Every structure is written in C-alpha cells, then in structure tokens.
Batch of 2 targets.
Target 1
Amino acid sequence: MKSPNVLLVSEPSLEINLLSETLCTQGFEVKMLNQFSESMQFIKDRNPGIILLDTLHKNVACFELCFLIKSNIFTRNMQVLILSDDQDEKTEIAAFTAGADDFIRRPIRPHAVVQRILARLNTSSQVISVKPSKQPDIRLRIDKESYTVYLNQELVHVSKKEFDLLHLLVSQPGKVFGRVEIFEKVWKRLPSENDRTIDVHIRRIRKKLGDHFISTQKGVGYRFNA
C-alpha cells in the first residue's frame, strides 16, 4: 500500500473532516489518527511527507511529538504543521521552539491550508509555486536556482535582495517575519536605527507584483498571504 502524503492527527469533527476531504480532492492521500501516542511509530513506518498535528487541547503532548519528529534523523525533514485554537502567542512560540514548520490557528480554512502545505513541500526544492487563496487566477513561481520570478508565466525582473526577501516570505506563507529576523537572514546584519531598507524593498516588490501578496503587520513585520 502506498504511504499517505499527509498524516492528520486529530479527533474527528466536521471541521477536520472537511479539511481531510479538501486535501483528498487536491490529490493528497490522507491518513487520520486520533492519538499522539500511536503516531510516532506510524510516522517511522509510513514516512508521510506532511504531518498535521491538532493540539486537541493537549499542547504538551503535541509539542513533545513534534520535538521527537524533528529530533529523529529519519523523520526530521518531514514538514510538521500545528493546528490550534489557542490564540496565545506563547503557544505559537512554543510550537516553533518544538520544531514546527508552521502554526495554523482556527478557524481552519481548508483551501488556505492546502496552499500552505504546497508551499512547505516546495520549500525543500529549488522552485516554489504559490497561488493566493483570495486571488485564484494568479500564480507566482520562484526559482531559487536561476533567481527568477514569474507572475502568471511572465518574467518579473527583481534585484538579488528583492528576490531573497520575497523567497524568505514565501517560504512560510502566513508567518509574520520580524524586522530583525529579515535583516539577519537577507542582509546578514542587524538593523540600524530608523533603517528603512526593508520598507524600500517591500515597496519595490509590491510595485512589481501587486499589493495582494505581502501584508504589513504594523509594528512587527511582514508576511506572505496564503
């Protein structure tokens, strides 16, 4: 039997069933389990590419499983996405500390989750292809190897830093990247006082791609819209 593309660890509900059905209609094979305790052995045996962990109001058990997945040499490259109804920022931080690749708050939007999964799968390759849920007729393709960006198959000319910044944001759709993190990963330095370098590059990217791809989180940073 073929290993499932997606392992979904959650209790059955209308919301979870709809998510599973949406994944299936998009070509994924989904396996559902409702116990964290039985999941690790299944992961080792079946090697799913994407793992969706619903906290199920059991944050500690969920994050422990995530940590085990990311600590094991045979499973650490699997993409782990956490589903949670907890609005506390500390919970999100704890999830990423445990090694999660993404953190998705309820209410769950199935089609947006699919796009985030596709982005996570593409992150491991040189090419990232995304289609914003609110702009279904638009597709953005980013090729790391050739440093090229295509918007609906039309080449968009960007500078190296514009490309690096866009690639960083697209690598984790929905995640807000803070200014310090962006400077460290793109410019390899810390920002100076009143440094507007990021803002200038974001304006240039928006001018070339449109305003719908990148959102500003006032006082925090920027995110790519899934």
Target 2
Amino acid sequence: MLKQTVSIAGKEVGASNPPYVIAEIGSNHDQSKDKAFRMIDLAAEAGAHAAKFQLFQADKMYPAETKMHDIFRSIQLDSGWLTDLAARCDEAGIHFMASPFDEQSADKLEAAGVPAYKVASSETAKPGLLSHIASFGKPVIISTGMCDLVDIHDAVQICRRAGNENVILLQCGAMYPIPPEHVHLRVMDTFASLYGCPVGFSDHTTGMAAAVAAVGRGASVIEKHITLDRNSDGPDHFFAMQPEELVTYVAMINEAHTCLGSAEKCMLPWERAKSRREGLYAARDIRKGEVLQPADILIQRPAGDIRKRHFLTLVGSSVRKDIAQGEGFSWEGLNITDS
C-alpha cells in the first residue's frame, strides 16, 4: 500500500483532511505573465491551495509546421517565468505547481522549487518521465484519463521503484467538457481499495455537483480548470471556471467536507437542550440521601442530561445532593444501584 496521507509543503492531504483544491490555470494565461499573475491571485483569493500550470515544449510534442504544433506553440508557457510565478504564488499564499511533459521541463520545475508534481493524463503512461518525476521524492499527483487499471498499476509501480510512495490518484475523464454519465466517481473507491493512497477528482464538468459528490465519496484533492473569461480564444477556456464561480466552487467543496462530520452517531448538544426528546426530572423537592421511587421521577422535555430510557435505572438510586422540584437529574448527582 502507498502512504495514506501525503504532505504537500506541510499541508496534510488525505481522507481525514479537508480537500486540497488545485486551480488549473494550464495554458489559459495566453502567454501573458500579467494574466498569469492575476489568475494566481484570484485562485488564492478563492481559497484554492495550488495554482497549477502546464510546462511543455511544442517542438517535442508534434512535428513542426503541423496544426497541433502551431496550437501548442501558441499557448506554451515561457519557462523563464517559473521563478517569478513561484514567487507570486508564495506572496499570494498558494502553492506553485505545474505538469511537466518532458524530463527537461521537470528539471526546470525542480529548480523552481515546486512542492509537488502533477502528472497530466496524457503523460501517465510515459515510464521514463514518470520515473524521473518520482525520483525527486516529492508528492506525485497522477491524473488517470485515457488510462485503464493496467496503466495505473504500472504508474504506481514506477513510483515505488523510484522509492516514492507519496502518490495521489485522481479519477479523470479526458473529455472537455465531460458529461455526468462519464464521470464515474466510484473509481476513486477502486483506487483507495487497491493502493490505500489519497484519491481525488480532476473535474472537467461544467458545473459544481460532481466536485461536491466527489468530496462525499472521499476525494482528498479536487482539480478544476480556471479562466478569466470563458469566451477567450484558446483550447482550454471554453470549459473552464471563471473567478466568481471558483469562489462558490471552493466554498461548496469546503462545506461538503464539513457536512461529512463524524461517523459517531450521537445527539447534538442543541438536540439535547432543545429537542422534543424527553428527559428525567424531579417530580418534587428531594433531599440528599433519599432513594428515588417511580413517583419521584417526572418525564418531560427537553432530553436534558438523562433521557427517559434510563427511568428504571434511576428507580432505587439515592441522590447525592438536594434536588429542587423540576430540576433535571444528572449522573453526577446520583448513586446508581446495581440491578
């Protein structure tokens, strides 16, 4: 099994911790450093924990003078910005992160001091790149779009062979946007069962319901593409989330996690004090040392300290102090007899 909890720059990520939210800026900076800075600031203000970019080299991805080469060339991040982007994230109080698409890009990110690495779905089945990333010893967050379980098992084993068990697996579908029927959040259960690691969700839906459901399903990490304007030109703007939406999105994720609460079922303090449940009260003034008889015990609302189901336990017990008529019984004020 992998580690159940992973630390990213001192922030614990795991099933018992609030979700770690990654604002995926990706290539939506449109090759403008000022726009990248604005998006970092907005992600931090919304409450995200990391601002993430993509670091690739179009020349290594597609043949020159092809349509895809031209598209990726027009949106690739200037690696000379990395130090400035990392510094801006530090100033904003948010982690700087990026997905490297080749070993050279990974080395540049390591030099920039990223606290963790995000592996894009398209790169998960690249053994050399994944091994290189894992060798840094930092947390590796792996998206699993376009992968089957064999690909994922291979990726996990590559990280292990590199001596890195700080792995987080994200359920992901490589559709942009992805319709709800193809989200398959239950896959996170499979990941958790097989590997014991933190799991999460890379959200390519157009709404917020999937992220809330993912938190309810145990997601420790949520990733969401963001943009300043969905109407901007570029391949990743049209399905991304705008700043005002991100604020609501993060708030809903946090509220969903708060709603998970405890697995222990008990009465809430408010329910005990104000609810329609009934408790046990003194039917008359009772002196210290008296032994309680059924007629001495009044059943009425609210539940108080001792609920009515303990009626027979109180019968035959003596009181440790004077109790006024109408006062609720407490366990501390009774000598309970064995029966």
